[in-house]
UniProtKB/TrEMBL annotation:
This is DUF4091 domain-containing protein. InterPro entries: GH123_cat. It holds the Pfam family GH123_cat. Residues 275-499 form the Glycoside hydrolase 123 catalytic domain. It comes from Myxococcus landrumensis.
Length: 562
């Protein structure tokens, strides 16, 4: 559940020029910030979880070397991953909650060239505990050599908790990604083996952060039709998708929770389209993939799009076995056509002032008006920061678009992280997001400008790690600090859900509501998040120790125990 439990309470001394300072991952370290924190890191991590911490190095850093960090304890040593935080220079704030200037976001390999030594030198250190890790206390020291002279040493203590989080997200998600965009961002041919390999690397990184993807290569499997039946060649599709659907890609066995049904132009008649969709569903059943297959209908349909969406829904339903996802508020014409109804986040929370959604209903109200079995998802849009290209000059409008959970670079880590706890409190069935590499497909340099749809980072969670940029010999995805916050929010969801499943649902809901009171009322104090984390962790330890899962085997979760 993200922030670390002891040091983050900030009962420590001010930084000096000689020592590194440990800072909560919920604090975005900007130039000129006055930082306080301890000289050692204490991290709490569940089995099946990853947790980050920031180490702010002293002085000006031009060259940096960080040896591998191993933590020793009662089980196999834990190896920490270390990145150096880069900065995005924000020219136009997303809204009044943002600000111009340098904001931390790209997580660079430590070996990457230091472009501006005047910016803060911050390491993001991440510890992941496998499901089978022996619980207990692990210790080690992070060492960093600055400019070939100064040696910084930071003691690390990691407490591996006895309870286990599931490898696959319990909250279904679907975030867009595109091989074409990735290829353009890296200056590669879209059909090259390098682009295909990069797509897998990007999608793997999403899965490592509990996120499932739609789009991918976007290439439909070849099909021909014989006697009304679709004969599909699945070889290329399976080579691309099977590792993400069968749990073979990661050692944890994590898999995509959802994936999209890909249209094929070879299916030109209504009967052929239905047969093709049916073949898709039958292939998933034959492979025994538990991933939910869905059809993404026309995005944010306008009134003139209604006939098309109704036709799309009818085809998919006639084929059977896949869900129809429609991104719309409650709508008399379209709601009955949706198996997954996905309004924007703003459509769930009434708020004084100008309306940011044309039809506002709570999740409970929506379920009463939808057919039984219809799932309710939500997604962020530019309504989380305003769609007008920066802060509004009208105070009422600025208030209406402020405070929302947001994935923008120049918004707080708490806003970046809030969607998971919000999902638990409000009971939504899943989260959608339109893209993770949108800026790659524009004429801008994502390293210098992520301003799209009125916000910094809307639709982009990565940076193109080209050899020229990183001083390396290979292309690779560079994750963002916001991707870590998104992951931490999904882990918050797992903590709360596990506590509820262990018989303490009221406690879990009360804890979450201390942090996320609505989609636009989210606590902004890192200390409060850390305190809730500590309390929930203690409660989980207590509940887990007396549960049937701990008695049967310390490795089982409620989901994996028969």
């Amino acid at each position: 559940m993200g922030a670390e439990w002891a040091w983050v309470v900030m009962a420590a001394m001010a930084a000096t020029q000689q020592e590194a300072v440990v800072v909560s991952p919920l604090v975005k370290v900007r130039p000129g910030a006055s930082l306080q924190g301890p000289r050692q890191a204490r991290v709490s991590v569940a089995r099946g979880e990853c947790e980050g911490v920031q180490v702010v190095l002293p002085g000006t850093v031009r060259q940096l070397k960080v040896p591998s960090l191993f933590l020793k304890g009662p089980g196999e040593p834990l190896r920490a991953a270390v990145w150096r935080e880069g900065y995005l220079d924000v020219a136009v704030p997303s809204n009044a909650q943002g600000a111009k200037g340098a904001w931390p976001d790209p997580l660079l390999p430590v070996s990457a060239p230091v472009e501006n030594p005047e910016l803060p030198a911050v390491l993001y250190v991440e510890v992941c505990a496998p499901e089978g890790q022996e619980p207990g206390t692990y210790r080690g020291k992070l060492r960093a050599r600055i400019d070939s002279r100064e040696q910084v040493s930071v003691p690390f203590t990691v407490e591996v908790q006895p309870f286990v989080l599931p490898a696959t997200s319990s909250l279904p998600t679907s975030f867009g990604i595109s091989q074409l965009s990735i290829a353009r961002g890296h200056g590669l041919s879209a059909e090259s083996p390098e682009a295909r390999a990069l797509l897998r690397a990007y999608a793997r990184m999403l899965l490592e952060h509990r996120v499932s993807a739609h789009g991918m290569s976007m290439s439909p499997p070849p099909v021909r039709f014989e006697d009304g039946r679709a004969v599909v060649d699945w070889r290329e599709y399976d080579a691309e998708m099977a590792p993400f659907l069968d749990g073979s890609l990661l050692p944890s066995g994590a898999r995509f929770t959802t994936t999209d049904l890909r249209d094929n132009k070879k299916a030109s008649t209504e009967a052929e389209r239905v047969a093709y969709y049916r073949a898709f569903v039958e292939h998933f059943r034959k492979k025994d993939w538990p991933t939910q297959l869905f059809f993404y209908a026309k995005d944010e349909p306008k009134p003139q799009d209604v006939p098309l969406v109704l036709t799309q829904s009818r085809r998919v339903r006639e084929a059977g076995g896949a869900r129809v996802l429609i991104t719309t508020p409650l709508d008399g014409e379209l709601s009955d056509a949706a198996d997954i109804l996905a309004p924007t986040l703003n459509c769930f929370f009434p708020r004084p002032g100008p309306a940011t959604c044309r039809a506002i209903h709570t999740v409970t109200e929506l379920r009463k008006q939808l057919h039984s079995g219809t799932q309710v998802w939500w997604y962020q849009s530019c309504n989380s920061h305003g769609c007008n290209g920066g802060p509004s000059t009208e105070a009422a409008q600025e208030r209406a678009y402020s405070g929302w959970a947001s994935y923008m670079v120049d918004h707080s880590a708490m806003l970046n992280r809030a969607m998971g706890p919000l999902a638990f409190v409000n009971g939504v069935d899943g989260e959608l997001y339109f893209d993770t590499v949108f800026a790659y497909n524009t004429k801008k340099d994502p390293w210098k400008d992520l301003f799209e749809f009125g916000g910094n980072g809307d639709g982009t969670f990565f940076y193109p790690g080209t050899p020229a940029r990183l001083g390396d010999s290979r292309h690779q995805p560079v994750p963002s600090l916001r991707l870590k916050h998104l992951r931490d929010g999904l882990e918050d969801f797992e903590y709360l859900r596990l506590l509820a499943r262990l018989g303490d649902e009221k406690f879990a809901r009360d804890a979450a509501r201390q942090l996320v009171r609505s989609g636009w009322d989210i606590r902004q104090d890192a200390r409060e998040w850390a305190q809730v984390r500590q309390v929930v962790t203690a409660r989980l330890r207590q509940r887990w120790s007396t549960s049937e899962f701990a008695k049967r085997s310390g490795r089982h979760t409620p989901e994996s125990t028969p």
